[in-house]
Each structure stands twice: as C-alpha cells, then as structure tokens.
Amino acid sequence: MSNGTVRSFPPFVARVTRFLPLLPLERLISEVANRVASQHPEFFDRLDDYASKSFVIVPTDLDWVASLTFHNEKVQLHLARSLDSFPNRDVTVTAPFFTLVSLLDGEEDGDALFFSRDLTIEGDTEAVLALRNALDDAEIDFIHECSAIAGPLSRPLEAGGKKAIGLLKASPFMRARQQENAEPSMDGMPGAYPT
Amino acid sequence: MTQKAMELVCPAGTPAALRTAVDAGADTIYCGFRDQTNARNFPGLNFSRKEMQQGIEYAGKNGAKVLVAVNTFAQAGNTDLWYKAIDDVAASDAHAIILADIGLLDYAASKHPDLRVHLSVQAAAANADMINYYASEFGAKRVVLPRVLTVQEIAAINREISCETEVFIFGGLCVMAEGRCSLSSYCTGKSPNINGVCSPPGSVKYEDHGTHLESTLEGITINQYPKGEAAAYPTLCKGRFESLGETGYVFEDPVSLNAAQILPQLQEAGVTALKIEGRQRGKAYMAQVVKSFRKAVDAVAKGQSFDLDALLAPLTEGQKSTKGSYQKTWR
After folding, report:
1. Residue B2 resides in a domain
2. Domain with B135 in it: what CATH number?
3. Which of A108, A120, B37, B138 shows its CA 20 to 30 Å from the CA of B316?
4. How far is B245 from chain A (nearest CA, A)?
5. How distant is the alpha carbon of residue B317 from its chain centre?
6. Phi-psi region of B31 (alpha: psi -120 to 50; beta: other; left: phi over 0)
7. How many domains does chain A have?
C-alpha cells in the first residue's frame, strides 16, 4: 500500500508545537513563498485562472493547517489550528509534512502518493491539478529557498539543513505509515465489499 | 551479441519534466501544446510555443529529439486551432509530429511534405493494411500501435509494413479502442478524442468519508476504496460497479501496463521504439521510470538480464501492473 518512503512526525511533535505562536511562522513562510514566487513568474502563468482559488494544506502530523491564495501574483498565506478556520476553501490537500515538502521539491510523484493513499485531495480537482503541475514545473528547492533568507549564512544553513532533514527522515524518530491499514477492511463501507 | 538499442520515447507535461526525462536518458520526448489539440489537455499541463522551442533546443543539445503530439480529432467548424498547431510544429525544430485525424494527416502531408509524421495510437491502426494505407497516402514514418496486440501479432505486422513501429511499455492502460472511446463523454459531455480529456478533472470529485475514499465523475460514483486499499484514476472503464448482484470491476481492474519483462521479445518482434505513458505525471515519476527503462533497454540490447518490477510498482495505478495484451491473460 504505502509507497514505503512516507514518514510522519510522532504525535508528541504536534502536541509540543501546539503551543508555538503561529504569527511569526506565518510571516516567515510568507516571506519565503513570495521570494520563490517572484523568481518563478511562469508558476502563475501555469496556474492561470486557478490562482483565484483557495488551497488549504493539512500536514497530518502537525497541529496547524495553511491556507494559500495567489491573487495578483502574490502568495497570501494564513495559518490556523483547525480546518474549520477556512470554511470557504476550494481545495484541501492532506499528507504528512515531509510528504508535502517532497511534493513541493518534485521528489515524490503526486499520483503515486495518491494511489498509495499517502496523499488525499478533496474539492476542486482542476485547481489542485493546476497547482500540482505549476509547482512541479517551478523546480522549487524548499530547503534552499528557506535558507536563502539567512543572507550570508544561507549556504552553510542549506547544507546543514539538508543533512539534518535527511538524517531525521531516516531516523527511528520518524514513524512509517501505520501497518494496521495494510489489509483492506470492509468495516464501515456503505455496501458489500467489492469482489 | 550487442544489438542496436530500441529507442526510448518518454512523456513530458511541462518543460521541467522534459529536462528531467532528457537528463534521465530518454532518446526522444513527446509533448503537446497547451490546448485541446493534444490528448492530455489537463490544467497546468503542456507547453506554450516558446516553451516548446526551448524544450526542443534543450533536448537537441543533449542528443535527444522531441515529438509534438497533435493527436486529438479536429472539431467540425473549428479546425483552425489544429491547422495552426501543425503549422507551428512544421516551423519548429521538432523531430516529428504525432497525428491521428485523417484530415489533419492530409493537411500535414499537403502543406508540409517535409514534416516527419508519426501515426498516433489514437488512430487505432491495428493491422498491416491500415498502417500501409497511412504510410503510402500520408507518408507516416512510424505508427504507435494500439495496446490490443500480442507480441506475435506485432511481429506479424512488422513483417508486412514498411514503416517503423512504436509500442507502449509502461503506464496508464486504455482498454477501449483508442481514439474511438466516448465512455466518459456520456457522463461529462467532453470527449477525450476532441477535448483531450478522459474523465476531465472538472467533473471529478474525491471525498474522504473516514471509512473509505469515494471518487465520483459528474456525481456518478466510480469507486469506493476502503482504508488500506490502493486508489486509482477515476475513469469509468476502471470503475467498480454493481452488476447482477455483484460488485466488481466490470470492464477492467485499475492496473498499469508494465512490459519490462517482455522487452527482449519486443526487440525480437522488430519494434523500433518503446513508449512510456504519462504526460500528466510529475518529474519524480519521469526520473524513476526513465532511468529504470534506460538501464533495461540497454541491458536488452547487450543480451543482459534486469529486474524493474519492484522498483516501479509504487508508481503504477492501483499499485498493480499487467502485461496487457502482449501476453493475453485478461478475463
């Protein structure tokens, strides 16, 4: 089932990060996102009319959700503790945090993650496809872009960040997908389980 | 004994995917313009004219070729869009154009006699007489064979035709007569053959009900996946329906084609080029699939063995694969 590469933070990470203030994080991610956007004008061209849609990203292993809109070739980002904060969302994309990052980086194939049920999408399917394709073409390097705001320290920060994340993803600290879902179950299905 | 390796033809839905495929070892890349002239007309996908020329230049610098697919059927009263696409391919440095519509084949042959033409799988040319007709009347230099033939039938066709053959080896698998299927049109009002979209995403919805994931097409349930079961594309031909009191896959299971194991037989059958499906897929798919098949195709040419199945399984629809019609084991 799971493609074997998906790793999640253990639950206590969400419990700890619950107490972190969202506003500074929101400002930091917004700055990075707009810096990236300014370097990739073709992203908005590819996103086309779907730039007016509201995309909500749900990292399943963290305690916040992010809403993204792309009006006037600017990224507007808002963080909240609950999906209910964005009732008018057009698209909801749900996956563990590092899976979402690997999608952004183009390291994982979105369709494969969907087949393996490691990624769930709901809402406007056209909009989510346009976003996926626009991001895939933009060739964004998440760690590189995040490190860039450190100015002269960006290069060591990027190298250290990539190494640390690589180690973290491979460490026993991160959880592989729950094995209890390895076999399909008919429990709760609305009709007879298909043959 | 080393033979000439079969040509590896790889998809690209974006310029980044094209560069990835070239860097991963593709001999040839196929792609389309960002409109309904190509059969993968999805949001955010495909190439502007400028991007196409840049992609052709990138491929050329790295020893690869680009084929441009104009492989939908021209809409009555609105043929200019397709004629313009053909004119633009002819004016570019693309290696060839991929066409399916007999009227467009005639247009290309008349207006651009020097333009190399490949016959799309959408033309559903599945026997030597049809292929020879396209070759003699419109100068088709290569035919992409429909995914309904056995290896023996491909070998027989190759003995009777003068043009090259290209066959699919990996990716999404249409079970209908290609270029003729209107199944999704009945639900959505859009034709895969004219609009370039089978199960157009505007008609697709996914809903997570906790116990199961449901996919619908224009409100019609295509499938319900219980927790723990691999999901698939929301196409009617691979939907799970109730019929005569039983629920199951009425037309075909959601599986992908993987002909890796029969590459030596395809070479033996005289196939010139091997095609990977998936212009709608991302760079990660491209890198993994193209690198894997590059090794496999080179190994086959040298008479060596290889094993790709475990490597490619996660990338296949429903996480299951089949050799399709090449070795007929379908129900």
Report:
1. no
2. 3.20.20.70
3. B37
4. 10
5. 14
6. beta
7. 1
From the list A47, A114, A182, the residue facing B228 with the nearest CB is: A182
Backbone φ and ψ for B96, nearest 5 degrees, come out as -160, 165
Question: For the segment B114-139, what is each residue's pLDDT rounded down to a tens digit?
Answer: 999 999 999 999 999 999 999 999 99
Final residue of a structural domain among B249, B264, B290: B249
CA dist., res. B306 & res. B290, Å (int):
14
Domain identity same for B129 and B33: yes
Q: How many interchain CB pairs under 8 A, A with B?
A: 147
Report which listed range, A183-187, A191-195, B229-233, is most confident.
B229-233
The residue of chain B nearest to residue A116, with distances taken between CA atoms, is B230
Show Cβ contacts of residue A130 under 8 Å, excluding neighbours closer than 6 positions.
A46, A47, A48, A50, B43, B44
- Nearest by CB to residue B44, choosing from A132, A190, A191, is A132
Q: Is the pLDDT of residue A1 over 60?
A: no
In a domain, B178, yes or no: no
Q: pLDDT, tens digit, for every residue of B195-208?
A: 888 889 999 999 98
Q: Provide the sign of the torsion angle of the four alpha carbons B294, B297, B299, B302, taken in this order.
A: negative
Range of the domain at A68: 7-140
Contact B44 A193 (CB under 8 A): no
Indicate the residue among B249, B270, B300 that finishes a domain. Answer: B249
Its ipTM equals 0.89
B1 in any annotated domain: no
CATH number at residue A102: 3.30.1050.10
Tell me the mean pLDDT in the region A38-60: 93
Range of the domain at B198: 183-249
| Nearest-by-Cβ selection for B231 from A4, A115, A129 | A115
Q: What is the mean pLDDT of chain B?
A: 92
From A150-164, B68-82, B156-170, B309-323, the region with the lowest mean pLDDT: B309-323
Distance CA A142, CA B289 (A): 24
Q: Give the pairing of strands B212-217 and B204-208.
A: antiparallel
Optimal mutation site among B45, B217, B238, B316, interface A, most CBs of chain A within 10 A:
B45
Q: What percent of chain B has pLDDT over 90?
A: 69
In a domain, A169, yes or no: no
Q: Which residues of A touch B315 (CB under 8 A)?
A: 109, 111-112
